[in-house]
């Protein structure tokens, strides 16, 4: 006991003083956006930044990395597998095209990572490093990132490295996408919360109530890591779209669209996270609202302009500790909320849809439809990643358009195709497309699906197989001075930047499926035949037929009776 106490007293002296310094920052924000169709998008973002690859001397021959806010469970995984940057998103539900966004995540699980190059490492060793990293990440967030035998692809047109520039050229991008119906769930939220400095005990993390979060129309859990100027930044993101109108109707109301922090999350924001540098709650002021609305509370709020949007902002740190901050908006004269006509909902510059046509089960056409709502021609990157059992025939890719002017037709400006290797590499298709103004275009190519091994079918084989959605990127218009002709399409995204990134939802494809009841039919039929055969053979062998003289027998019996 005494020894332990004296050790405790000595402890501060044993730790080198350099470790105590901390330049790490933590900030959190919540942004609420009322949508035109009465729903609410809440976006929670938690960001932790600190010096990266900053080794500190802890002994004569030992160095270590020390972090105060950056979660060590994640940082050790990243340094061990030498990852420069990664994005992991888990999303469930469907993002409506009428909800404003600049980037909608892939449905299901998507992981994009850039591995640091290593000259002593061959392709196989690098693939092994990637596999171990995905396994580690899957374990950390309780998601089946590696499940299902899906392999990674390397689409470089649709993803550009956003960290420090010079090295970006040699980094090795990897992407894995797994369509899953229930990608976000409570199991993933729990480890997610444990990475936050205040967990769910204080600050905005306290609002993360799984009962409400996963009850929404759409849910997202995102983990992002980037390096900039010797600093590493981990950003955790939680997104949710909820429907206050439905909730009000369930509670017996007429269907009002008013909402507050408390009605959305069913938790109160009472304690601020003490280590957070900034902790803000923002509410986007609705535009084009016919009815008057009011935003509360009025003390401590600041109104900001962000482009065309007006935003009301509160600092949670400034809220008095006795009274919880309950930001709310209400439409006092509106009862109930009326859904606007579809034509009055905001339209994005482009919208997209997956097309899957097929006759029979093994052949069909797969592609996308793109609608350019803008008055200018647009250039779009189209990236597809199909599992190996979908084999596309790129030679027969067709571009079909219906536009107001006849001379402007959609076209494919550049194309890159990586054919699949069964069970080892998925199909990757990348294309640069030209869309005429105010037009609807279809890009389709024939495909053939392969037969799988009997053991590769899931237990509900007749449900169909999920094909990941397409990624569509609307590029910013090229500056007129730039020489366009020679630009490699893989650098287009980095040089021009994306105006809009959209993912189509994943689609079900029915593969040629063997008749799984056949073996049982065969077994039953053969057993019947065998039973009939052996039955008659047995009869023949065991039974014999002869004539019995009944009278002779009766006389014999009588004689015996007399003897007795
Ligand atoms: C949520 O907010 C973060 C930071 O403000 C932003 O980077 C991200 O794109 C937002 N997510 C969505 C889906 O709007």
Automatic annotation (TrEMBL):
<keyword id="KW-0812">Transmembrane</keyword>
<dbReference type="GO" id="GO:0016255">
    <property type="term" value="P:attachment of GPI anchor to protein"/>
</dbReference>
<dbReference type="GO" id="GO:0042765">
    <property type="term" value="C:GPI-anchor transamidase complex"/>
</dbReference>
<keyword id="KW-0732">Signal</keyword>
<feature type="transmembrane region" description="Helical">
    <location>
        <begin position="518"/>
        <end position="537"/>
    </location>
</feature>
<dbReference type="InterPro" id="IPR007245">
    <property type="entry name" value="PIG-T"/>
</dbReference>
<feature type="signal peptide">
    <location>
        <begin position="1"/>
        <end position="20"/>
    </location>
</feature>
<keyword id="KW-1133">Transmembrane helix</keyword>
<keyword id="KW-0472">Membrane</keyword>
<protein>
    <submittedName>
        <fullName>GPI transamidase component PIG-T</fullName>
    </submittedName>
</protein>
<dbReference type="Pfam" id="PF04113">
    <property type="entry name" value="Gpi16"/>
</dbReference>
